[in-house]
Design goal:
Blueprint: H1 3-20, E1 39-43, E2 47-51, H2 53-57, H3 63-89, E3 93-94, H4 98-101, E4 108-113, E5 119-123, H5 124-127, H6 136-147, E6 156-157, E7 170-175, E8 179-184, H7 185-189, H8 196-204, H9 207-218, E9 222-224, E10 235-239, E11 244-247, H10 262-273, H11 277-288, E12 293-294, E13 306-311, E14 317-321, H12 322-326, H13 340-351, E15 357-364, E16 367-373, E17 378-383, H14 397-407, E18 411-416, H15 417-422, H16 424-434, E19 440-443, E20 448-451, H17 455-465, E21 475-481, E22 484-493, E23 505-512, E24 516-519, H18 521-533, E25 538-543, H19 550-555, E26 558-562, E27 567-571, E28 574-577, H20 583-590, H21 598-604, E29 608-611, E30 615-620
Parallel strand pairs: 17-18, 19-24, 23-25
Antiparallel strand pairs: 1-2, 3-4, 4-5, 6-7, 7-8, 9-10, 10-11, 12-13, 13-14, 15-16, 16-17, 20-21, 21-22, 22-23, 25-30, 26-30, 27-28, 27-29
C-alpha cells in the first residue's frame, strides 16, 4: 500500500471512529496499517491504549472505562433484582448476604423464611421467575387444614413443622378407631392418606369381585389357593393340570395373550413351535377358506418365522410371518379383499348409516386408503405391526400420508393392529363419536363436577375408556350423572421427558365413558381447574394419529409445535413403549453390550421399530 492510500484509509478510520464514539477519543498517535493491526488511541480519562481498528469501529473503547461501566451495570442489575424480590415477596424472606452473593442472574442467593426459618440457596433468575412461589414449608404447613376434607376418613391431622421434602417428611394422623398413624406428605397430597387398617377391611370387600373376574376369565382352568389381598400382593394359584404357581393378580394376569400358569404357558408355546405345515395350512383354511390362497410352496417352521403363500386373487406370491397371517393379515397387495379387522370396522360404519369405499388408490394418486367415507371426508388406515414396521415402512410413512390427506381436506385416522385386538370397544366408541353417532348424549350442565382423589377409581375409568390408558396425575376431576362417573380430566406437573419443562401444568388425560357424548364436558372441567389453580401456563399433546386439535382450539389452547414421529418396538404380537427399551434399561435387563446402541441391540433381537405420526403440541396461557 503506497503512503497516499494508507493516509486516505487512516483519515477514513478517524472520521468513522469519531462518529461511532461521539468524539470521545483522540487519534493524534494513530498510524494506520490495516484493520487488524493495533493503533494507539488516547482516552481523555485513562490516557493511551492500543486497539485494532476493526474492534474500535465495532464499538469497543477504553478497557478501563469498560470496567467502570460493567461495575455500574452490575450495580443497576442488583438494584433491579432487589426491587423485584421485595415486590414479589414483600417481607417474607431475609437476605443477609445479598450484596456479597449477587453478581449476576446466575448467582446463588440465600433466602431465609422469617416465619418458619427454612433456608434456601437458589439462583437469582429462579427466585424472581414464576416457578418459585415462596416458602414451600409454609405452603404445605397451611395446606394441611384443607387436606383434611380430602381424607376419606375425615381424620384429624396433627400439627406439623419443619417441612423439608414431601417425599420423605411424614405427618401424624389420628384414626378414631385405630389411633395415630403416620403417612408421607406426598402420599397425603395424592389423596391416599387413609388408615391402613381401615383400608385393609375395605380391600377385603373386593375379594368377591376378584373371584368373579377369575371365574369369568379362566373358568375352572385356574383357581385361587390363597386369599386375595390386593392387586399388588402375590397370590398362590393352581391350574387344572395341578401346577401350583405364584403370581401378582394385576392386569397382566388377566391378559388373553398368555396362560397365567408358567408351566402350561411353556407347553402351549412348545406346541406352537412344533406345529406341522399341514396343521398351519388347516388353520389358515378355517380362517380364509379353500379358494383364496394356494399353499403349495408353504413350509411352516415357527410361529414367528416367515411363510411363502400365493394369492389366487392377484396371482402373486408374498412372504409373511406365520402368526400375522393367522391373525387376519392376508395378501399385502391391497387390490385383494380387506383384512378381517377392516371388515369388522366396515360393519360398524355401515351399522351407523354410512357408505364407504375400500382400498381406494385414486384419491392420493396411487397411495391406498384402506377405508374412506366420502360423505364425512374421513379415511381410516389399519397399520399392521408386521407390514408397517421399519423393515417395510419408513419413519415418515404414516406422517406423510396424514399430511397428504390434510391437504385434500381429509381426516386420516390410523389404527394399529394390536389396538384393535385389545381395545376394540374403545376404538368403536371413538369412531362412532367422530361420526356423530354416539348412543347417549348428555349436557355437562346436568352433571355434577367433583375433585376425585381416589387414584384407583380414576385409573380404572381411564383404562376402560381411554385409548392410552391411565397416566399418573396429581389433579383429577370427574363429571357424575346420576352418581355415575361419565367424564374425567387429569392434570399434573409437566413431564420433562416429553416437553421442554417451561410450562407449569400439563393436561394429561381427558375422556368420556364409552358410548357417551358429554356436551361441554371438556370446557366445564378445564374451566374449573383454571379457577381453582390459576395456572400461568398449561401444555398438552394430541396424538396426530387421531386428533386434529378441535378440542384444544375450543378450550383456548394455541398450537406451538408439531413433533416428529415417535416409535414403539414390535415384540411378538404387541407394540412396547420405547422408554422400557432405552440403553440404560437394556443394559440392566438384557446385558446389552456397552459398544452397541439401543437400536443396534434391538435389531439384533428382531425387535423392530414402528412409527406413529407424532404429536400436535398445544399451550394455554391466561388472557390478560
Amino acid at each position: 500500500m503506497n503512503d497516499y492510500k494508507r493516509k486516505e484509509r487512516e483519515n477514513d478510520f478517524k472520521k468513522k471512529a469519531s462518529i461511532i464514539h461521539n468524539g470521545k477519543y483522540r487519534y493524534d498517535k494513530v498510524h494506520f496499517v490495516n484493520k487488524t493491526t493495533k493503533v494507539d488511541i488516547i482516552c481523555p480519562i485513562h490516557g493511551l491504549f492500543s486497539q485494532t481498528p476493526k474492534n474500535h469501529l465495532q464499538g469497543q473503547g477504553c478497557p478501563e472505562c469498560g470496567k467502570i461501566n460493567s461495575s455500574n451495570h452490575n450495580k443497576n442489575n442488583y438494584d433491579i433484582f432487589r426491587s423485584k424480590l421485595v415486590n414479589k415477596f414483600k417481607e417474607q424472606f431475609e437476605t443477609p448476604y445479598l450484596e456479597e452473593e449477587y453478581d449476576n442472574k446466575n448467582s446463588n442467593i440465600t433466602l431465609i423464611c422469617k416465619q418458619c426459618g427454612q433456608a434456601y440457596n437458589l439462583k437469582a433468575s429462579y427466585i424472581i421467575s414464576d416457578r418459585f412461589n415462596g416458602c414451600t414449608a409454609c405452603k404445605y404447613k397451611y395446606r394441611f387444614i384443607d387436606l383434611a376434607m380430602y381424607n376419606k376418613t375425615d381424620n384429624e391431622i396433627l400439627p406439623f413443622e419443619g417441612y423439608k421434602d414431601s417425599r420423605t417428611d411424614v405427618v401424624t394422623i389420628v384414626c378414631p378407631e385405630h389411633g395415630e398413624y403416620t403417612v408421607r406428605i406426598k402420599t397425603l397430597l395424592e389423596g391416599r392418606g387413609e388408615c391402613k387398617k381401615c383400608n385393609g377391611y375395605k380391600r377385603l370387600m373386593k375379594e368377591d369381585d376378584f373371584n368373579k373376574k377369575l371365574l369369568d376369565y379362566f373358568g375352572d382352568d385356574v383357581k385361587a389357593v390363597s386369599q386375595f389381598k390386593g392387586t399388588m400382593k402375590p397370590m398362590e394359584f393352581v391350574c387344572k393340570n395341578g401346577h401350583r404357581f405364584t403370581r401378582t393378580p394385576n392386569s397382566s394376569f388377566f391378559s388373553r395373550l398368555h396362560h397365567p400358569c408358567p408351566i402350561c404357558s411353556k407347553e402351549i408355546m412348545a406346541k406352537e413351535r412344533t406345529k406341522t405345515t399341514e396343521q398351519f395350512i388347516q388353520e389358515a383354511i378355517e380362517i380364509y377358506g379353500k379358494e383364496k390362497y394356494d399353499f403349495t410352496e408353504t413350509v411352516y417352521e415357527k410361529s414367528d418365522r416367515p411363510v411363502t403363500i400365493k394369492c389366487n386373487d392377484c396371482g402373486r406370491y408374498f412372504t409373511i410371518e406365520a402368526n400375522s397371517f393367522l391373525r387376519g393379515h392376508g395378501c399385502p397387495y391391497h387390490n385383494c379383499n380387506s383384512s378381517i379387522m377392516e371388515k369388522e370396522l366396515g360393519d360398524i360404519i355401515r351399522r351407523n348409516g354410512y357408505d364407504y369405499i375400500t382400498n381406494d388408490r385414486k384419491i392420493l394418486d396411487g397411495k391406498e386408503l384402506d377405508i374412506y367415507i366420502p360423505s364425512k371426508k374421513i379415511a381410516i388406515e389399519f397399520d399392521g405391526i408386521y407390514w408397517h414396521n421399519e423393515l417395510n415402512k419408513s419413519k415418515l410413512y404414516h406422517l406423510n400420508k396424514t399430511i397428504e390427506c390434510e391437504k385434500k381436506g381429509i381426516r386420516l385416522i390410523h389404527i394399529f393392529e394390536d389396538e384393535w385386538l385389545t381395545k376394540k370397544s374403545i376404538l368403536s366408541s371413538m369412531i362412532e363419536n367422530i361420526l356423530g353417532k354416539t348412543k347417549r348424549r348428555i349436557f355437562a350442565r346436568k352433571c355434577q363436577l367433583q375433585r376425585v382423589n381416589e387414584a384407583t377409581r380414576i385409573n380404572d375409568f381411564l383404562n376402560d375408556n381411554h385409548l392410552q390408558g391411565m397416566c399418573p396425575s396429581s389433579i383429577k376431576y370427574g363429571l357424575f350423572y346420576n352418581d355415575e362417573l361419565v367424564s374425567v380430566m387429569t392434570f399434573g406437573k409437566t413431564r420433562h421427558f416429553i416437553g421442554n419443562g417451561s410450562h407449569e401444568y400439563e393436561l394429561l388425560r381427558f375422556c368420556n365413558k364409552k358410548g357417551y357424548s358429554i356436551i361441554g364436558a371438556a370446557s366445564k372441567l378445564f374451566k374449573n381447574f383454571v379457577e381453582e389453580f390459576k395456572p400461568k401456563s398449561v401444555v398438552s399433546y394430541a396424538d396426530r394419529r387421531w386428533s386434529i386439535g378441535n378440542l384444544y382450539n375450543n378450550l383456548g389452547f394455541v398450537l406451538y409445535n408439531k413433533s416428529q414421529p415417535n416409535y414403539y418396538y414390535v415384540i411378538g404380537n404387541e407394540r412396547k413403549n420405547r422408554f422400557n427399551y432405552r440403553k440404560s434399561e437394556l443394559v440392566k435387563k438384557y446385558n446389552c453390550p456397552e459398544n452397541m446402541s439401543e437400536h443396534e441391540f434391538c435389531l439384533a433381537q428382531k425387535w423392530y421399530r414402528i412409527y406413529d405420526c407424532g404429536c400436535l403440541c398445544y399451550e394455554w396461557i391466561p388472557q390478560k
